[in-house]
Write a structure and sequence with these properties.
The protein is mainly alpha-helical. The chain has seven helices and no strands. The longest helix is centred in the middle third of the chain and has 38 residues. The chain starts with 12 loop residues before the first helix and ends with a helix.
């Protein structure tokens, strides 16, 4: 009799991507540059220019990490049941959420500092510049909020609509979706100001779900 092959399979690349990218999002937000309040119009513009290179590096790395999360979630959706409408809807919600967050990263990490540099070089007045920066700040908040809601909704759909929940492979994922998916989506929709510390908290909770998704991918692939 030939013994069954019980050699454990290696961890899928998508599982590594989910685990490390989720943790990287939190670590990068810890290094998110912040402009001090109360420095005045000229001081704020100078701070935006001074922090521009650091902001570009942090947001560029966040953009890459978000792409790895999207790759991992798509792999998870294909594993859980790509023909189930709820799974497809969940993957689409998460993808749209990543796109919205990515757009906010472009505005916060690249456009703002460059606009501040142009404003200083061209000598733009406060009255001419302040409404533009206010509009960009509102757009960043709205896009980030929409992104977190989309990603949270996607987590819930992927976790609770999976046929594998009954066999135990997705029970942990389903439990984590309550705080990481529903909780973060409700927090984002509540009007909470999404400053870097709040984003660290929300992405930290989401990172637990991504770790659970990585574990689920590994369990299902064995």
């Amino acid at each position: 009799m030939i013994a069954a092959d019980r050699t454990p399979r290696s961890i899928p690349p998508a599982a590594w991507a989910l685990a490390f990218a989720g943790a990287a999002m939190v670590a990068l937000l810890f290094h998110h540059p912040v402009v001090a309040h109360g420095t005045g119009y000229a001081g704020t513009l100078a701070a935006l220019v001074r922090l521009g290179d650091r902001a570009a590096r942090v947001h560029g790395a966040l953009f890459v990490a978000c792409g790895f999360l999207l790759y991992g979630v798509i792999a998870l959706a294909q594993t859980l049941g790509p023909r189930r409408p709820a799974i497809v809807f969940g993957a689409a919600c998460h993808a749209l959420g990543c796109a919205a967050v990515g757009a906010a990263m472009l505005g916060d990490g690249f456009i703002t500092s460059r606009l501040a540099r142009v404003a200083i070089e061209q000598g733009w007045t406060h009255d001419a510049t302040a409404p533009v920066f206010a509009l960009i700040a509102i757009a960043i908040q709205v896009l980030t909020r929409a992104g977190l809601i989309g990603m949270g909704a996607g987590m819930c759909c992927l976790s609770w609509a999976s046929p594998r929940t009954a066999d135990g492979n997705c029970r942990l994922l389903a439990a984590l979706a309550l705080p990481a998916g529903l909780g973060t989506a409700l927090a984002a929709a509540s009007g909470l100001h999404l400053h870097p510390h709040a984003l660290m908290l929300l992405t930290g909770v989401q990172a637990l779900w991504y770790a659970g998704a990585a574990l689920t991918l590994w369990r299902v692939s064995r």
